[in-house]
Amino acid sequence: MARVPVIGGNWKMHLDLTEAVALATDVRNRLGSTRGAEVILFPPFPFLKTIADRVEGSSIQVGGQDLHFEKSGAFTGAVTATMLKSVGCSHVLVGHSERRSVFGDTDAVVGRKLLAALDAGLKPVLCIGELLEERKGNQTFQVVARQLQSAIASIPVGRLADLVLAYEPVWAIGTGLTASPEQAQEVHAYIRQKLADLHGASFATATRIQYGGSVKGSNAAGLFTQPDIDGMLVGGASLKGEEFAQIVKARA
Ligand code: PGA
């Protein structure tokens, strides 16, 4: 079995519309006919429709950075899965560590968001990962197991075919401290075992697990040598078209 690599560019809260269009255009020029890897851009909400239109007809896909779990209602500032779909999103990030730590998304909220994405036919990228103090306290496996279990254990495996996981050690996000390929592989292998425990070996074998946390053009190839690293979720380096392309080409 060969898992198709999947590389996401999480633009977070950066760029204005002009800059976002320029970046999407650059990415499209460099990667718009990529074969052998999936490329997904996660622009800020206000730019989604414009960016989706900009990459239409290319191999590049677009996703939201977050969603609300309700279908509609008085939730000022929030967006639904259906809204994301209606502006051209195929994917959505769920449980990014910044949503967990800055905005207070609990495991329960993350689980509801995951279900809302699936209900709307959006492909979720579920982010999990340990804090620095959890790693120092040898709790990494425990933490990712808990996050995984609480998000997907009760969902029938037949609904999870499009799930992508992103292992993002929180201490590596935006810090310049990348996990070494071996450190990342150790956790990826553990996550895959956990997927097998929860939903069976064939699900575990088929599900792609991205690594995220200070991925750069210079370290992507090393990470990609690991057997259980199936892609990257890239923050800072995805804001530079050339470097993002270098990361994708490290594997595509
Ligand atoms: P970073 O962010 O590449 O800037 O560390 C990764 C992420 O948060 O997805």
Characterization of this structure:
By secondary structure, the protein is an alpha/beta fold. It has a single domain (6-251), classed as Alpha-Beta Barrel (TIM Barrel), CATH 3.20.20. The protein has eleven helices and eight strands. It has helices at residues 17-31, 48-55, 81-86, 97-101, 107-120, 132-136, 140-152, 181-199, 201-206, 220-224, 241-249, and strands at 6-10, 38-42, 60-64, 91-94, 123-128, 164-167, 208-212, 231-234. Helix 1 packs parallel to helix 11 and helix 5 crosses helix 7. The protein is globular. The protein starts with 5 loop residues before the first strand and ends with a helix. The model has no long low-confidence stretch (mean pLDDT 97). The structure holds 2-phosphoglycolic acid (PGA). 2-phosphoglycolic acid (PGA) is lined by residues 10, 168, 173-174, 212-215, 233-237. 2-phosphoglycolic acid binds next to strand 8.
For the record, the count of structural domains works out to 1
CATH H-level superfamily title:
Aldolase class I
Order of helices and strands: EHEHEHEHHEHHEHHEHEH
Q: Please give the order of strands in the largest beta sheet.
A: 1-2-3-4-5-6-7-8
CATH class: Alpha Beta
Radius of gyration: 17 Å
Distance between the termini: 16 Å
Uncertain segments: none
Secondary structural class: alpha/beta
Portion of residues within helices: 40-55%
Q: Which ligands appear in the coordinates?
A: 2-phosphoglycolic acid
Enter the CATH topology name. TIM Barrel
